[in-house]
């Protein structure tokens, strides 16, 4: 059900023509999540060797997606937190969960290191994210409400790591010190990230027809899916959510917290929307069970 709903989601359709690395990255990250919950560490069946193998494949898929866009770290963090909760509950055996989970992490980091070594000559600093502090500088810029700004772009030109980190800390400290209300700033970021309409500025001349309807439809669908997902989370938590639901909830929570501190753009919502739709389907299913 969630797949059918997402296929008709105006936000996903609007992003389909955008030339961005988000598409290929999201494909492999979602493939990794699918393998993890369907066949790997978080699956309910399968033999230990098969769970181990599928977890390794999940780690490789996540790592490949992360090479395109560094978002798989949210999946890793969510998987670790979900595993800890399951272990505390006693919902899964320690060995049956931790061994394939560690195999997934090992495969993830192994591919990342191998790719870094193989491509080290393509650029002076390789293909890694060598300016991670830049996202924090942008995300905690209270003047731009956490959106992109060239105000502190000089930081990117500083070659010395220590000097660049110090400049980033100074920019962040100055920004937060001059902010009248940190809670108000974070609330503004939430509104801009989750509440803004899709940006169709990349479509030359706009859509041929129905642009207003597409934008309004996207917001209506987003609100409906979010409400269903929140309802599903409440019900699932009360009924002790299973491994799959717990992993998805942790992923949504990790994404929510992450974008409180890093740069925001409406199109960055694309990464987490499949998980929101999956939880919305769970909420709808719980509602139907309750009526029956």
TrEMBL record:
GO MF annotation terms: pentosyltransferase activity
Official protein name in the record: Glycosyltransferase RgtA/B/C/D-like domain-containing protein
Species assigned in the record: Candidatus Scatomorpha pullistercoris
TM spans (from-to): 12-37, 49-67, 73-90, 97-118, 220-237, 244-262, 268-285
Membrane topology of the entry: Multi-pass membrane protein
One record GO biological process: lipopolysaccharide biosynthetic process
A single cellular component GO annotation: plasma membrane
Keywords assigned: Cell membrane, Glycosyltransferase, Membrane, Transferase, Transmembrane, Transmembrane helix
Entries under InterPro entries matching the protein: LipidA_mod_glycosyltrf_83 (IPR050297)
Compartment(s) of residence: Cell membrane
Organism ancestry: Bacteria, Bacillati, Bacillota, Clostridia, Eubacteriales
Main location: membrane
């Amino acid at each position: 059900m969630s797949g059918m709903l997402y296929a008709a989601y105006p936000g996903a359709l609007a992003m389909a023509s955008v030339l961005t690395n988000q598409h290929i990255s999201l494909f492999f990250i979602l493939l990794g999540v699918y393998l993890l919950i369907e066949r790997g560490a978080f699956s309910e069946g399968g033999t230990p060797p098969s769970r181990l193998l599928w977890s390794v494949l999940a780690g490789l898929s996540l790592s490949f997606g992360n090479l395109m866009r560094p978002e798989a770290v949210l999946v890793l963090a969510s998987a670790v937190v979900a595993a800890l909760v399951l272990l505390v509950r006693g919902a899964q055996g320690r060995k049956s969960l931790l061994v394939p989970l560690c195999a997934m992490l090992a495969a993830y980091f192994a591919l990342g290191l191998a790719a870094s070594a193989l491509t080290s000559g393509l650029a002076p600093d390789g293909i890694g994210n060598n300016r991670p502090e830049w996202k924090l500088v942008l995300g905690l810029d209270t003047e731009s409400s956490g959106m992109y700004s060239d105000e502190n772009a000089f930081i990117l030109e500083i070659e010395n790591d220590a000097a660049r980190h110090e400049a980033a800390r100074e920019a962040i400290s100055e920004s937060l010190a001059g902010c009248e209300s940190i809670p108000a700033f974070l609330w503004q970021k939430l509104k801009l990230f989750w509440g803004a309409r899709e940006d169709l500025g990349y479509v030359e001349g706009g859509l041929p027809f129905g642009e207003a309807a597409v934008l309004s439809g996207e917001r209506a669908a987003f609100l409906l899916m979010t409400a269903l997902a929140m309802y599903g989370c409440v019900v699932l938590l009360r009924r002790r959510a299973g491994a799959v639901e717990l992993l998805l909830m942790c992923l949504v929570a990790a994404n929510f917290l992450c974008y409180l501190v890093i740069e925001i753009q409406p199109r960055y919502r694309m990464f987490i929307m499949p998980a929101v739709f999956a939880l919305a389907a769970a909420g709808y299913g719980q509602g139907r069970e309750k009526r029956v």
